[in-house]
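Could you help me review a protein record that somebody else here produced? Here is the record exactly as it was handed to me:
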Amino acid sequence: MEPPSTSLLPHLGGCWPWLMMNCQGVWIPDPDEVWRSAEIIKDYKEGDKSLQLKLEDETLYEYPIDLQGNELPFLRNPDILVGQNDLTALSYLHEPAVLHNLKVRFLESNHIYTYCGIVLVAINPYEQLPIYEQDVIYAYSGQNMGDMDPHIFAVAEEAYKQMARDEKNQSIIVSGESGAGKTVSAKYAMRFFATVGGSASETNIEAKVLASSPIMEAIGNAKTTRNDNSSRFGKYIQIGFDKRYHIIGANMRTYLLEKSRVVFQAEDERNYHIFYQLCASSSLPEFKDLGLTCAEDFFYTSQGGDTSIDGVDDADDFEKTRHAFTLLGVKESHQMTIFRIIAAILHLGNLEIQGERDGEACSVSSEDEHLSNFCSLLGVEHSQMQHWLCHRKLVTTAETYVKSMSLHQVVNARNALAKHIYAQLFNWIVQHINKALHTTVKQHSFIGVLDIYGFETFEVNSFEQFCINYANEKLQQQFNSHVFKLEQEEYMKEGIPWTLIDFYDNQPCIDLIEAKLGILDLLDEECKVPKGTDQNWAQKLYDRHATSQHFQKPRMSNTSFIILHFADKVEYQSEGFLEKNRDTVYEEQINILKASKVKMVADLFQEEKEAVPATAVRKGTPRISVRSARPAFKAANKEHRKTVGHQFRNSLHLLMETLNATTPHYVRCIKPNDEKLPFKFDPKRAVQQLRACGVLETIRISAAGFPSRWSYPDFFNRYRVLMNKRDLCKNDKRQICQTLLEDLIKDPDKFQFGRTKIFFRAGQVAYLEKLRADKFRAATIMIQKTVRGWLQRAKYQRLRRATLTLQCYARRHLARRWHLRRTRAAIILQKQYRMLRMRQAFLRVRNATLTIQAFARGMFVRRIYHQMLVEHKATILQKYARGWLARTRARRQLQALRIEARSAQHLKKLNIGMENKVVQLQRKVDEQNKENKLLNEQLSMLTSAHSSEVEKLKKELQQYQQTQQGDGNQLLSLQEEMERLRMELERAHGEREVMEDSHSKERDLLRKVRLSVCLPQVVSSGGCTGESSHFTTLKGSVCSLIIISVAESHEFARNTAEENIQMKKELEEERSRYQNLVKEYASLEQRYDNLRDEMTIIKQTPGHRRNPSNQSSLEREGRGKAAMDMTLFLKLQKRVRELELERRKLQAQLEKKEQEIKKSQARDEQCSIREAHLAFQFCKRQELESENKKLKNELNELRKAIADHAMQNNSSNDVQDSYNLLLNQLKSANEELEVRKEEVLILRSQIMKAAQQKETGENMVKERVMDFLFLLPLCWWLPEQCHFCSGGQDGTGRSCRVVQGYRRSCLGMRCSPWHFRQPRIICAMVLPEGAYLHT
């Protein structure tokens, strides 16, 4: 490895000759360690040809010096500066100092993060470190970038802070080689945003953002020779925030999935993790039908050798993947479909392809277990997939070729199909993740995290490595533009004197790839050539770009080319470039997948123009058109309009536009060694990556430029506290800032004044911040001093006033001490004398008062006792008098009620008109029996007609089988048609059973009504001879009938509500079935196209046969074959029309049911319990009318259908007889319809009369009950009666309950039958069973 060129600039690490003194440390190049430390043992003098050095192992070394170039070794930094957090803080900034500082921090301090200006350098430790816990996140939250140790959380916090402060979108660009730790760094950055910017709502969006990582790692990461968890695709995740900077959603964009890894893996590499996870979990019960075993048994997962990774449990990772799917809202059915598709890809790779005729043709056995599993898991036709895996179709204007493919072509087609299926599944999962992370809240700003593949170079580099390195060239250019070009352009725009620094610009390399007639353009052009090859494309590259400085031709190869990238020189093999750029998948195989019975599989391969909603089919009738047997002209191979390279270039340009519109933050990941050993540092690999990622160029620009800059208004507002009052009075802020800086910073080279900004060297802004903080500190101290002085003065004044008060009282005490002693003795004597006199007077008054109180209290108690005796006697007299009056009034009322109850006239009034009603209902039952017989006859006729039609179809089927013996698929379609007709017949039988059930229910209901009407007639016909003995029984039966009718009304209302709910469910089920029928119709149409193509192939075989390589069917033969299928197609078309008519009838019936449900719901809500019987009769009348209309319409339709059939078959006498019979039935049905209308009018009038009589009867019963309840308070004081009147012998009233038979009081006494017979019947008529009547 050649050492980089040195320089004599002090800030770049070179030294002036007089600095080469004794004992000074220097760095010298070394082929093993890149740079080696040494010490000067002899002073350097100008003109010396060498330096005398002593190495670290005490060996002497003579370092030669180029006198012409005057290049001296780099100086070492002092030991106190070794291990700095920021590389720009070193005294000598050069490559060996940076490398040594990173090595010391990584190996000695175990610090993996180091700042380099605006770039965070992260070294992969290949070991889990405890520096990513929750408390670490909270520790970095709210801190400035330089306040704490370097960390990925510090960069994330800086991006979050700048987004909130500047209101500008941010981006974190994580770059580095494969295995450097880019994916882990991006994951920790997203974890920081999810913790700090947690969602304010309960959507748990931050958990969903983190849950997307295990899913994308499972389907997009794989083991390579450099990394056990290498991302084989690029992703850019935008985390959206609202105005309060809470996470509201996220969006993910992916770039260039490495599809070739699905079918091929190099040595010591694996396929994508999800394949091994699914194989490790194949023993679970839900995965038994997938037909999976261990990963070693499948070709697509065993090419790399070892299928396991040390320290990784695939089964445990699979559980995490399933949990992440569930957290993101992916249904269990969709998850199972995803796993079925992945298992199908594994089975596809194990197909046994058998070669024929020296490999010119091949086939797949129909008994192949893996083919059967593949077709069953994806729900596709076994025979079609077996055929089109080994054949392809070529369509021209005049001919259609079905050509057998060679063994190599079949293997390529199989691999292309597997890659295409996995790519479509990958895109579907990404779309569903974006749907789960999408939000309807308006996004205020976002932070993007770019995790894209790093620079790659292998022994064999193909199209994937070319695209990956092209993307890294674009990212490196963006980094150069942000760090170098924009820096220098800013200085030139502001007019700052600046010496331009030469740095590496990779624009010529990018132009070589993407410019006009570049590598990508020539590749697309060669793909358009019908017989283009990889060798022709490579030759075009040699002819076009041989003179380019970034393009080379290998000496020993004519199919390879070399590109000099920014990081390294890479040799690409052109073999496979065209095929991977075309990404060709045969249309016949895709059409089979489109017709899959699994909805998700069919949706994966639907084109955008075919993705029409199924509901659009409802608007019109599907058109059935007769198609020619010769298919229309279509391209034989399905090719994308844009090649993979063109799509990748467009997506990369869109990514660059997004990154340029945001504020970038860079994280450069370094891979310390290729052996993946923890904390092992390889200087060669590290310095190679440092040179490639631009870290050293950042150091150069940071050391030589002005990294800090302020606009004049911002600087004035920030540091105005450092200015004088006299300067603040000026209006020119620029002059004020110049005056301040000239006073504070004496060295004019430390700052520069631009047109709109002030530029500072490194460390000057920190110096100004220190001065500002000192100024604020001094002002704070002054304020604190003043406040503390005021507080101390106030405290002193309070203490002084308290001291003076204490002194005053103390002096008074001392002055009065002698006088107070004499006064106290005199007061004690006076106190004792006065106390004795007052005690004697108090005792005299107390004795007199007690005597007076005793006599007065005795007098008051005697008066109260005499008054209580008088009131007790008066109460007894009143009780007996009121009881006698109440008993007399009750006897009179009871006699009146008995007389009125013996007459049965009120019962006859209630039942007027019911006899006519019974007659009408009996007639209605007879008519319904007749209708039932007619319907049975019609059903039998329809059944016979249907059976005859089935027999005709069977005969036609037998004839067609004789003519076309090999056509098994059409026989299958006819059998399915017969099954559908049989199901329709069963459905007709089911409708008949439903009608019979409804008829039997109505007949039972009429029988109950007849009994309820006939019972009063029996009572009235018996005369009045037995009224006295059977009065109680008759009353009880009438009450029970009333209660039963009310209960039946309740039950009918409840049944009606349940029927409405059931009809709603049936309506929803019918709608869902209709949706499924529409979808099945689309899939059947696709299958019909496939069958038609296969029929054309079968028809071509007996008529015209050539060799398998050039089979063709001419247009003339296609026309001849089309005539043979026309009759069969017309019959099928007729049957489709009949099915469409039946569907219309069902839809009309559903609409009528919906209208009836809505009407019944409206009536149920408006009607009360009292009008339940009337509503029931009204509903029955409407139902009869609707049934009459329906029968009339059906008879008209049958009449038309039979008339049409009679026109076609005039010679049939049976049809004529059936037609005459239906006409007679139609006439009789019309006559019965008229009679039924008259009966409905009569029934309506009788119902209205019965309702009026019922209302009058209820009013009378209510008046009687109110009269009886009016007597209850008068019975309160009757002694020794039942609890209903007085409540027992003790006279306490209690509540009672209506029961069958006699009542029982609360004390267990049996009530008198004579006293309680009539009130019990009245209560039973008014109160429901089990209710309580309170006194």
Observations:
- Residues 22 and 42 are 5 Å apart (CA to CA).
